[in-house]
Amino acid sequence: MAGSLALAGPQLIDLHPPAADLRRLVVAGMERQPRQLPAWLLYDDRGSQLFDAICQQPEYGLTRTETALLQQRAAELAQALGPGVLVEFGAGSARKVSPLLEALQPDAYAALDISTGHLRQACRALQQRHPTTPVLGISCDYSQLQQLPAHPWLEPRRLGFYPGSSIGNFSPEEAVTLLQQFRRLLEPNSRLLIGIDQPKAVERLEAAYNDQAGYSAAFALNLLHRLNRDLEGDFRPEAFGYKAWWQAEHSRIAMALISRESQTVTLAGRRWAFAAGEPLISEYSVKYTPDAFAQLAHRAGWRPLQRWSDAAEDLSLHLLEPAAGTSLADLEPDSAQPHNDR
Ligand SMILES: C[S@@+](CC[C@H](N)C(=O)[O-])C[C@H]1O[C@@H](n2cnc3c(N)ncnc32)[C@H](O)[C@@H]1O
Q1: pTM (two decimals)
Q2: For ligand 1, is residue 209 a contact (CB within 6 Å)?
Q3: How far is the CA of 115 from the centre of ligand 1 (A)?
Q4: CB atoms closer than 10 angstroms to residue 229
Q5: Residues 95-145: tens digit of each pLDDT
Q6: What pLDDT does 8 receive?
Q7: Domains and CATH numbers, the chain
Q8: Distance of alpha carbon 217 from alpha carbon 59, whole angstroms
Q9: Cβ–Cβ < 8 Å for 86, 110
Q10: What radius of gyration do the chain's Cα atoms show?
């Protein structure tokens, strides 16, 4: 039945956070010191396109390496995952998943993403490439969903897929909460395949987030256009520069818009003063060694089952299953909010 439904095209469920949430999050982020906004705000239609362009830059190897690893290991990964419905968190253009869909032939594929218009297009394109797989797009903030929506395609067994090292956008405490959240969304009898970027030479890391062509800078600056449009802001993007730098003490890249001058900005009905040189953090990207990530997974009640890496050990794919003897009730509550960098 599922196969014939797929021929009708992808379905989309819209659970996008309301505008009031956006205002609350932005005000809270602007009150932080240093100022820091949730990373998902970077992804409106234009932001998603710019992210795709970043992925093609020579300095940004993560996408190429992870895609190649998924292609090379697709059969093994599919066998280790086993049958079920594949649920991708933060699917973006949903290109990395293709080799997995071919090898796994899941009952259905669900793509969760906050960038609604881009998600719709990604699901349409994916459905054309995989006409017999039922494709369901869910526009949402995956860190805040109480449960996956009731839908016949989302019947157990659920297999989570979280590539791109996107967990690095969350602080380690938030990442534990997020992994618990994924376990709740995937229960029962789930597995999670997650891509983790590893620490490497500082020059390589900093170059990856400061590409010569300027797409990383344009991606961050697009945030100001979005804030102007969605929250009645009057940011002058030309009054901000962009910088990405390695913070060894946190094993992370910090990405920020830097005020070029002393200035005052209106946003969400309030006035905000920026000193010259003051940063507005647009996102972090925490890098984990395989051991550090395995410890994080344990803290969230997941047991690492298997790991695949590229030859240079630049990144890994980790397969996790719920740790025996841990129930969701054991894992909660965790004090950290899982929202990206909130
Ligand atoms: C770094 S991109 C990765 C895209 C793709 N998975 C890949 O590996 O290339 C992050 C994606 O997750 C989405 N995203 C970020 N935070 C999210 C959230 N809290 N809830 C849902 N989607 C989110 C963004 O819109 C974007 O498409």
Answers
A1: 0.94
A2: no
A3: 8
A4: 10
A5: 999 999 999 999 999 999 999 999 999 999 999 999 999 999 999 999 999
A6: 74
A7: 2-17+59-200+288-331 (3.40.50.150), 21-53+201-286 (no CATH)
A8: 14
A9: yes
A10: 20
